[in-house]
Amino acid sequence: MAVFLTANTISAQELKQNQHTKSVDQENNTQPEPEEVAAMDVRPGDVAVSAEGRVFATIHPLGSQKIQLVEIISGKAIPYPDASYQKNNKKASDATFDAMLGLIFDKNNKLWVIDMGLELGKTRLWAFDISTNKVIEKIELQASVAPKGTFAQDVAIDEKNGWAYLADIANPGIIALNLKTKKATRFSGHPSLQAEDKDMIINGKVVLFGGKPARVAIDPITLSADRETLFFGAMNSSSWYKVPAKLFRKQKDNYTIGHSITRVGEKPFSDGALTDADGNHYFTNLQEHAITKLDVNGKLSNIIKNEQKLLWPDNVYLAQDGWLYISTNQLNSTTGFTGKPDDGTPPFYIYRCKL
After folding, report:
1. DSSP H or E run through 246
2. DSSP strand E in 84-180: where?
3. What are the Cα distances from residue 83, in Å, to 78, 79, 157, 181, 232?
4. In whole angstroms, what is the distance from residue 2 CA to residue 132 CA?
5. Do the beta carbons of residue 213 and residue 207 sit within 8 Å?
6. What is the pLDDT of residue 175?
7. To pair with 72 at 20 to 30 A between CA atoms, which of 48, 81, 280, 352?
8. Which domains does the chain have, with CATH numbers?
9. SUPFAM superfamilies given for it (predicted)?
């Protein structure tokens, strides 16, 4: 693995400040109560909300092979765009979904969904026009950049410049996809992409993955509102990083990109994140059953904490009307994490809170 040093090395003073920027809870009476949007018998993956308030979710591939993408209508999960696109426990094909996970709306209200292709061995990015409920894009990434075994589970879309950024945790890296040419490049080998050698502890137990203490690499990835800064971090990491997005658009080499990465601040161990228009960051806090905010001043605080409801908050999404949506799925109870039969307890929930 290539090793890089960042150009802007964190000073001792910054490090000391970061050490004191620990997660603190807001007063209980100021924390919003998670409100049920859907109770599901299968695990939601990520959730995304359109400009007009339509709610969509992927179904986590660690939980179901029947259905992959749904719209939540009156609290019910309805196959989207229809049942014919779902895998339905059959062999994966080019015409149907395989392993959908990350999804997001761009500023043009186009729905983008990443298909990791865990069975098919192909990473595909789908786009939907929700006004017609039609597939308008299906981009297959070249195997040289996203070979079989790639686990590109989160995506950020730059509709202004025509780019998509995917986070791959299997071979830790950032895949930058030119939406016009359909060509992609991979950035890898940098320490910021890797998991820290620290245990994830939930309810007093060390979380395992593949029979060993979980060490999950780059996971959440977001873009600034002006689409000029890419933010990212590992699931097993207490650091949140940024890098100029133009370096990917200009196809700079790994060395140049690596030396341009800087640390934004602290984060909890998280599976999902969002960056709002003001530059605040929100993380799913796996260990504390919380949603944690890193504000523009570097303060880290739990804005929502609920040990009964936020059981593995997988992702968080801020709708245009100010509602914060959270998918929860007890993912650490799946066979992939425990090595044992799935002992998750449905229903699994999508919640929302008004900030």
Report:
1. helix 246-249
2. 100-105, 111-115, 124-129, 134-140, 152-158, 163-168, 173-178
3. 9, 5, 26, 31, 34
4. 46
5. yes
6. 98
7. 280
8. 12-354 (2.120.10.30)
9. Calcium-dependent phosphotriesterase (SSF63829)
Residue 240 Cα to chain centre, angstroms = 13
Strands 55-59 and 348-354: unpaired
Pick from 132, 131, 169: nearest CA to 153? 169
Q: Residue 81, preceding bond cis, omega within 30 degrees?
A: yes
DSSP structure string for 115-141? E--TTT---EEEEEETTTTEEEEEEEP
| pLDDT tens-digit series, residues 177-201 | 999 999 999 999 999 999 999 999 9
CA 279 to chain centre: 17
Of 258, 263, 168, nearest to 219 (Cα)? 168
Judge if pTM exceeds 0.70: yes
Give Cβ neighbours of residue 336 (< 8 Å, ≥ 6 apart).
62, 209, 210
